[in-house]
Specification:
4-stranded mixed sheet; 67% helix; globular; alpha+beta
C-alpha cells in the first residue's frame, strides 16, 4: 500500500511528478539513468540526516534558503538535472519532512523507470518485480536478511545480486538494490509489489484507450496514433473498443485524461448548457 500523504504534500507531489514526466519524455535513457542514480543518492542523504531533512522541509525557512542550502551541499556531486529536480522538491510545501523523502524517492524511481520507457521494456520490468515480490513472500528468512539494516549494506546488496542472478534487467536490479539500501521500515515484498504497480502505471502512459461508434480502418488507426504521439510527445499505442452508444466520433483516454469528441458527448454538453 502506498504512503498516504496529507493535502499539501499530495499537491506538491503531483506537481513534481508532472514536471518530471515532461523531463522523462524529452531525455535520453542514459540521462535518465544518471538522473535516477543521483536522485537515489540524494534520497539516502536526506533520509539519514534528520536535522538536514527537517530544515529542508520546514515551511518557516524561506524557500530560497532551503534550496540554496541543498545546492551548496550537492553542487559538483550530482548532475545539474538532479540538482534542479531536488531543489524544486525542496522549494515545495510538505506536510512532514518524511513526505519530502517520499517525494525524492518517488522521483528517483520514476526517472529510473524512464529508462525502461525509452527502451520499451516496462512490461518486462513489471513482470520481474512482481515475480521477485512473490519470491520474497514465500521466503520470509530471505526478506528479513535483505531488510536487516544492522548488517553492512554491501553484504545485503551482494545477497540480493546472488538471488537475482541474470534473471532481471538493469532497471529492475537498480530499483531493488536501492530499496534494499534504504528499506525505510518497509517489508520488501510489499515494496516490490509497489514498484510493480508503479511500472504498470507508467506503462499506461503509452496506451490510448479509444472508444468509437464505428470501426476504424488500419489507416485511420495509424493516423490517430501519430496524432496522439505528437500531442503527448511520446509514442502511443491504441486499444480500440467499438461503442455504438456514442452515435459518432471518438472518446480518447490517456492516463486518466479524457478527450470526448463523440456525438453523444457533444449532445450531453449541449444539454447541460441549456437554461433550466
Amino acid at each position: 500500500m502506498a504512503t498516504v500523504l496529507q493535502a499539501s504534500s499530495r499537491e506538491s507531489l503531483a506537481a513534481a511528478h508532472a514536471r518530471l514526466d515532461t523531463l522523462v519524455d524529452s531525455a535520453s535513457a542514459a540521462d535518465l539513468q544518471k538522473l535516477g542514480d543521483d536522485l537515489f543518492a540524494i534520497t539516502r542523504l536526506v533520509a539519514t540526516q534528520v536535522s538536514l531533512r527537517r530544515h529542508l522541509a520546514d515551511p518557516a525557512v524561506p524557500t530560497e534558503a532551503r534550496a540554496g542550502l541543498l545546492r551548496s551541499i550537492l553542487d559538483g556531486k550530482v548532475g545539474e538535472q538532479a540538482l534542479e529536480v531536488a531543489t524544486g522538491l525542496v522549494s515545495s510545501r510538505w506536510s512532514s519532512s518524511l513526505d519530502l523523502v517520499e517525494a525524492l524517492e518517488s522521483s528517483a524511481r520514476r526517472a529510473t523507470l524512464g529508462v525502461a520507457e525509452k527502451e520499451r521494456t516496462l512490461d518486462d520490468v513489471e513482470d520481474e518485480l512482481f515475480r521477485f515480490g512473490r519470491i520474497l513472500d514465500r521466503e520470509p528468512r530471505l526478506t528479513a536478511l535483505l531488510a536487516d539494516t544492522t548488517q553492512p549494506e554491501q553484504g545485503r546488496i551482494a545477497l540480493l545480486d546472488a538471488v537475482l542472478g541474470d534473471r532481471v534487467g538493469t532497471v529492475t536490479a537498480t530499483l531493488l538494490r536501492q530499496t534494499v539500501r534504504l528499506p525505510r521500515g518497509r517489508h520488501l515484498d510489499v515494496a516490490a509489489e509497489q514498484l510493480a504497480e508503479l511500472a504498470a502505471a507508467r506503462r499506461q502512459r503509452y496506451v490510448a484507450r479509444i472508444r468509437t461508434a464505428v470501426a476504424l480502418t488500419p489507416e485511420q488507426e495509424e493516423r490517430l496514433a501519430a496524432s496522439l504521439t505528437r500531442l503527448y510527445g511520446r509514442p502511443m499505442s491504441l486499444q480500440v473498443e467499438l461503442d455504438e452508444s456514442l452515435l459518432g466520433g471518438l472518446v480518447v483516454e490517456v492516463g486518466g485524461e479524457v478527450i470526448d469528441g463523440s456525438v453523444a458527448g457533444r449532445l450531453a454538453a449541449a444539454q447541460r448548457s441549456l437554461p433550466s
